[in-house]
Write a structure and sequence with these properties.
alpha/beta, 270 residues, TIM Barrel, 2 domains, 7 helices, two-stranded antiparallel sheet, single chain
Length: 270
């Protein structure tokens, strides 16, 4: 019956002189894009269904230098063709340099956390505090001023924020306790974003997530977050990835990413 209905609709469109929409047309209309500092000074796609803009410049400590321009592009161009996806979403770089903390100036020396008091050592408490502080700087010093410059909503709580978890950033390695400290850093970031009222999700591949975070216990703030899965090369691959397991057991796969012509495209799974 569904096939007959589609055929009848196509025939009616032709009879009226209106071209029937093809699968390719619909696919193009439902594509989202994610952009960040690598796309600075580049022409960005017209009429994305939705857009995910990177707030950082590749590191958790660095801003995207063209954030305001990309926020303005997303707010102006996104069509909302996919109702399940907010037209403008955000993503942030994450990290945990606790094993090389003597080489960075941003490692915390104090603070009360769910893991106890941070005293500057390489602990879950200081890892959590590191994540909290990096998210606070990203929101208050990077996002809010850029949003105001762009003339878009500057309330961080009105957006979905994705934690970008990749091996190219600095992470603790070599043991289960190291992965537990990495999870603590991500928990700190998620907590800081959540207190603004924002929705928070996780972006990664299964391989990278296993190396960085490992299994996530049920009592972790990360356990119920939704997933945006990277790694596909085609739309067909991105659609298939929607059926894979999420990064954490309590969440869903709601977005998948694929790359065409060097530009990141995103497919909604919901």
């Amino acid at each position: 019956m569904r096939a007959l209905g589609v055929a009848a609709l196509a025939a009616a469109s032709l009879a009226l002189g209106v071209p029937a929409a093809t699968a390719s047309d619909r696919d193009d209309a439902e594509v989202g894009y994610d952009v960040s500092y690598p796309q600075c000074d580049h022409d960005l796609p017209e009429d994305p269904a939705f857009a995910v803009v990177g707030v950082n410049g590749g590191l958790a400590t660095r801003p995207n230098p063209c954030l305001a321009e990309q926020l303005a592009w997303a707010a102006e161009e996104a069509t909302g063709e996919v109702p399940a996806q907010p037209e403008l979403q955000l993503y942030v770089n994450t990290a945990n340099p606790g094993q090389v903390r003597e080489l960075v100036t941003t490692w915390p020396s104090r603070g009360v956390t769910p893991y106890g008091r941070c005293d500057g050592d390489n602990s879950r408490a200081c890892s959590w505090r590191y994540g909290w502080e990096r998210a606070a700087v990203t929101v208050e010093d990077f996002f809010v001023p850029a949003a105001e410059d762009a003339g878009v909503d500057a309330d961080p709580g009105d957006y979905t924020w994705w934690l970008d978890v990749e091996t190219t950033n600095s992470w603790q390695t070599g043991s289960a306790p190291a992965r537990a400290r990495n999870r603590a850093a991500l928990e700190g970031m998620a907590t800081r974003l959540t207190v603004t009222g924002a929705e928070v999700g996780l972006y990664s591949t299964r391989y990278q997530w296993r190396r960085i975070a490992g299994p996530v216990p049920e009592d972790s703030r990360l356990h119920d977050l939704d997933s945006w899965l990277a790694g596909s090369r085609t739309l067909a691959g991105a659609r298939a990835t929607c059926r894979r397991d999420p990064l954490v057991d309590g969440g869903r796969v709601v977005l998948t990413q694929y790359v065409v012509g060097g530009l990141d495209r995103d497919h909604s799974c919901v």
